[in-house]
Amino acid sequence: MIMGAKDTAALETQSIEEDFDQPSPLRKIISVSSIAAGVQFGWALQLSLLTPYVQLLGIPHKWSSLIWLCGPISGMIVQPIVGYYSDRCTSRFGRRRPFIASGAALVAVAVFLIGYAADFGYKMGDKLEETPRVRAIAIFALGFWILDVANNTLQGPCRAFLADLAAGDAKRTRVANAFFSFFMAVGNVLGYAAGSYTNLHKMFPFAMTNACDIYCANLKSCFFLSITLLLIVTVTSLWYVKDKQWSPPPVNPGDENTKTVPFFGEIFGAFRVMERPMWVLLVVTALNWIAWFPFLLFDTDWMGREVYGGSSEGDDRMKKLYNQGVHSGALGLMFNSIVLGFMSLGVEWIGRKVGGAKRLWGIVNFILAVGLAMTVLVTKLAADYRKIAGPYAGPSPGIRAGALSLFAVLGIPLAITFSIPFALASIFSSSSGAGQGLSLGVLNLAIVIPQMIVSLGGGPFDALFGGGNLPAFIVGAIAAAISGVLALTVLPSPPPDAPALKSGVMGSH
């Protein structure tokens, strides 16, 4: 019987989809990577809009610090757990897709709670003229914690899914993580653009209520768009890209070594048996994020306080100057995201030109170190200019351009930070036979622990040196330089190609 062309094509497509041991087509990797745009849209809104919203609800500073700690805490707990169970999920829908779908659903619930916290609090008895609005704060905090848990539930399995699709191919793994970084930049740009548009609430007239003013309504509207984008890219990707169904290996009842190991036993076991390349990667990653977090947490505050000379606690003119600096910092973050996006697309090509992924990572860490050190020069120039032009003058156009240029240039190392460490973790875990989800969860510990250290210690450390953001930036510059040296000299080079991965051979030099 002779089959038609359509039948043949269908069978060929089916056989390709079922061959999970071969690297997947690039279009499928791009589809899964696009989920990062939906996730990062929400993160950008958090960074640009939630701090004023927190002030609107009247959250005391000592409470707000606890709320913002939920990110690293949930990342430290949730990602390893999700990674562990996504490696062992026996669902007929695959290992990763159930967790990605659950994370997207949780994001929708969390964003709804955050956006309507003021309304729910008002319905439950909060007085609009009184602050803090205790009930609204409780609902906001609940939604915020759920949002961080949901984002961690999403991102870990997404990166592990990309590693699965790469099927151990080192080049395809790097490309997959580069596209993930690119779509993170796309989400950032969309989030900052939506957050800067003050009339977005007109698209959703029902968003403004007695308890929710124009600013709050804009926040709601931004989150509506965020949920829509996330659900579109998630549903499309999970429908289009199939996930390999996992079956546990056969167990010999007489073999004592096949006993089930509890989750935390697996985590500690992963550290015990972790090979040298992964340990070095964790150290370099931790130092890298010690460098990044002071800037990521305090960049807009630096613009408002040191560059513009304003104060969030001063008189009206100083507050206005500070807000101008914060808005200018948001513009800098937009430039940073644009550079991040373009750089992400060139990671693979640039890595080949400079001699490999680890060398590229080492080089850009020195760019990060120089960029953080340059904040001292920009701050001094701005202070000297105010001595001449007056305390309310703000920075000169040249100083402002220099500060914004720093934001843009730092998009280069940020693109590498968002891609290469995760690619190396996937490659090293493939070589050692470890699970992708658990390995990426362990790598996440090297990110969230520095974040907790900086969040809790950054303020008191800066206060020891008279306040301001520069002391933490200088420590970050030193950490970035050390991270660059270790990446160039101690971090092992990954296998050059897929055959090296599949044979389990990896050089250590």
Q: What do these coordinates show?
A:
This protein is 76% helix and 0% strand. It contains 21 helices and no strands. The protein has helices at residues 5-18, 26-33, 35-57, 61-68, 70-87, 97-115, 117-123, 134-166, 170-196, 214-240, 263-273, 276-307, 316-345, 347-354, 357-389, 397-409, 411-417, 420-432, 436-464, 470-489, 498-502. It starts with a helix and ends in a 7-residue tail after the last helix.
In brief:
By secondary structure, this protein is mostly helical. The protein is 76% helix and 0% strand.
* Tertiary shape: globular
Order of helix and strand elements from N to C terminus:
HHHHHHHHHHHHHHHHHHHHH
Let me know the number of strands.
Answer: 0
Question: Alpha-carbon distance between the termini?
Answer: 58 Å
Helical run tally: 21
Alpha carbon gyration radius: 24 Å
Share of residues in strands: under 5%
Low-pLDDT stretches are: 1-17, 255-262, 497-509
Topology:
Layout: H1 5-18, H2 26-33, H3 35-57, H4 61-68, H5 70-87, H6 97-115, H7 117-123, H8 134-166, H9 170-196, H10 214-240, H11 263-273, H12 276-307, H13 316-345, H14 347-354, H15 357-389, H16 397-409, H17 411-417, H18 420-432, H19 436-464, H20 470-489, H21 498-502
Helix pairs in contact: 2-8, 2-9, 3-8, 3-9, 3-10, 5-8, 5-19, 6-7, 6-8, 6-10, 7-8, 8-9, 8-19, 9-13, 9-18, 12-13, 12-15, 12-18, 12-19, 12-20, 13-16, 13-17, 14-15, 15-16, 15-17, 15-20, 18-19
